[in-house]
Design brief:
Helices cover 24% and strands 15% of the residues. It contains 4 helices and 5 strands; from the N terminus they run H-H-E-E-E-E-H-E-H. It has a 5-stranded mixed sheet. Helix 1 packs across helix 2. It is globular, with a radius of gyration of 19 Å.
Length: 220
């Protein structure tokens, strides 16, 4: 339960989420113990309480443009400059942006992915006037779409990675990795996370860097 330490409002969201889950219907003749059902409901409630803006289906940000199915890799698909920071548990004065971009999977098929940006209050400034940026990779956050860090209140790794970097003056951007966050491609194909497929992770990181510099010319 370490992810619940951030605020009282976050803790209260756990309670609200649990109360919003309908009571489980026990199939006729089932011998599922009530305690198992109760524990399952509590686990689902806790998982939902970590979502920043409801389910992925309720967050329009993850919907890709319908005309983007043939856009080449590294293409900026959607830009959200001002993400609602009140939906996240962030250090003060470190606002968020989010973008969608085109990458490719292990088979070379085009697939959309998402990435968030965390901006420092007092960024370092390079001699040419640009801000140094760090592309943040990460360990496993899960294998299903709702496990995308940009979809989570605390961006998943919070003070173990992105927060300290932003607080020390660096722009941090972190791809969710294809299959996490965005549910469907523009052609209506479900996205699949290439878990442990290193070339796929490399693709996502490479094209995230490329599109970051396209979306924000102030990044070095």
């Amino acid at each position: 339960m370490l992810r619940c330490f951030f605020s009282l409002s976050f803790l209260s969201s756990c309670i609200r989420a649990q109360s919003s889950i309908p009571s489980a219907t026990i199939p006729s003749g089932s011998n599922i113990p009530n305690l198992t059902i109760s524990n399952t409901q509590a686990a689902v409630a806790f998982e939902r309480s970590n979502w920043a803006n409801g389910s992925l289906e309720e967050d329009d940000y993850y919907d890709v443009p319908e005309n983007s199915k043939d856009f080449p890799t590294g293409t900026l698909l959607k830009l959200e400059i001002h993400t609602n920071a009140l939906l996240h548990t962030l250090p003060a004065q470190t606002p968020l942006s989010r973008i969608l971009f085109q990458t490719k999977d292990l088979n070379g098929s085009l697939v959309p992915a998402s990435v968030y940006f965390q901006w420092p209050y007092l960024p370092h400034v390079q001699p040419d006037g640009t801000y140094p940026a760090i592309a943040s990779t990460r360990r496993t956050s899960g294998a299903f779409p709702a496990c995308a860090p940009s979809h989570i209140h605390n961006l998943w790794y919070h003070f173990t990675a992105p927060y300290p970097l932003a607080l020390n003056g660096y722009v941090v951007f972190a791809p969710d990795y294809a299959g996490l966050g965005v549910l469907m491609t523009a052609s209506g194909r479900s996205t699949v996370h290439g878990y442990l497929a290193s070339p796929v992770t490399a693709n996502d990181l490479f094209y995230a860097v490329e599109v970051a510099q396209t979306a924000f010319s102030t990044l070095s």
